[in-house]
Amino acid sequence: MKKISTFLIRIELYNSEDADYDDLHDVMFENKFSKKLIVNEILYQLPRGQYCSFDEIKDDEGNLIDNEDEVGTIVINSIQTVWEDFGLTIAKVDGIVKAYNLKTIE
User: Fold this and answer.
1) Closest C-alpha among 62, 71, 3 to residue 32
2) Taking the complete model, does pTM exceed 0.90, yes or no?
3) 2 CB contacts (<8 Å, ≥6 apart)?
4) Residue 99 — very low, low, confident or very high, per pLDDT cuts 50/70/90?
């Protein structure tokens, strides 16, 4: 069985305030992206505007999405429902993720 790839997403909502990210968090979670990251069985809070996939991401037909371009389309469409002017990076991570000085969640 193939391991599910993890995608790390970084979004900057230009000309925004902290409260503007609340709606973004909701639509990202609906699309299987979380503000939390598990590293070595420790749960961390990701910085504002950063997300990590937490489950399989599938298209409308139920096919597994496992590449940055298709994930990017989902993320862009999600962001555009709450904000117009934004920057975005997407990284597919198939190896170890290191976390430094992030806040842990208990």
Assistant:
1) 71
2) no
3) none
4) confident
